[in-house]
Structures are given as C-alpha cells and as structure tokens.
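Entry 12.
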Amino acid sequence: MYLWLKFLHLFFIVSWFAGLFYLPRIYVNLAMADSESEYARLLLMARKLFKFMTPWGIGALLCGLLMPLTQTAFAGWIYAKIALGLLLLLYHGWCGLLLAAFSRRQNRHSHRWYRVFNELPVLALIAAVYLAVFKPF
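Predicted 3D structure (tokens):
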C-alpha cells in the first residue's frame, strides 16, 4: 500500500508543480498584456490551467498525508514535508486569488513581482526533495 501511495504522490506532485511553475508565468504575461485579445486569451489559459492543476494538488496532498499513516513510525522530516505541502496549498490558493483579481481587472502587481512570485515553488521543491532524500530529522 505504501509504495502505491508513494507512486501516486510522486505523480501528483510532478503534475501539480507543472501548474505551479507555469501559472505565474502566465501572470507575468497578463501583467504585460497590451491588447484586449491578448489579455482575454491569457486569462482563459490561466483559468483552464488553474482548474486543471487543482485536482493534482489535492491528490498530492492526500497521498502525502496518507503515506505516514501506513508506517508504524515516522521521523520528524515527515512533519517538515507536511508543512511544506500546506505552504504549497496556501501558494495555490494565493494563485487563485490573483487569478480572481485578473478576472476582475484588479491586478495590483507588476510583471517583475510575478517573476519573483514564480520562484517560490522552486524553493519549496528544493526543500521537499532535500527532506525526502536526506531525511535530516
């Protein structure tokens, strides 16, 4: 059971991160859009991607939370990975709030801000891979 959960968790993580990496890149372009048609096309892409990536995030979190329950004992690094997963959930929700602001034409950030915002999941991924490989706690 544990290996199947691990397999599914990795699948969902890869899929979710693809969206977490790409959606803010769409936001960069939305913040720089010059024409109405370009804005509408990018907004449609962002909405579809957000809808597509949300189930992958749910699957990643569920499998990640279920995996420790299949073990008799687990170490402290699991708690750190769960915390990272919850932070990524907050990031995902923040992406949704930003998408809603773009939909209402109330974006308050520059394309440069979105370029920095786009790097946050990279840091989370580095931390999660480190924890999974080295199991430091």
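Annotation: The first helix runs from residue 2 to 32. The chain has a mean pLDDT of 95.
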